[in-house]
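Hey team,

Filing this mostly as a record. A colleague (T.K.) asked me to run one chain through the structure pipeline before their review meeting, and I want the input and output archived in the tracker in case anyone asks later how it was produced. No errors, nothing strange. Just documentation.

Input sequence:
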Amino acid sequence: MRILLPALLLAAACGAADPREEAASRCRGHYDRLWRWITARGEAPATEAEMREAAGIRDLDPWGHAYEVERRDDGGGRVWSNGPDGEPGTDDDIAYPP
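Output structure:
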């Protein structure tokens, strides 16, 4: 308990990020990398594995779940977190673009 309280105080003092804000920021960063890849080559990667690589997705969201990526019909992509519940298609999902 002696270690936990100082750690919590330090996190609060350093402005520890809200997990939803952190996930949104990471989705945007992954999307930006994917968009640069698409604009340099003129089309989105063909497979999900290539999309993940192009977006630089190697991390997990703040809740320990993998970020998701998909190719959109317009030739672009979309990156999202399934949010705290880890289930796709629920109200707590965080995506970019929305």
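Quick notes for T.K.: The two ends are 41 Å apart (CA to CA). The mean pLDDT is 88.
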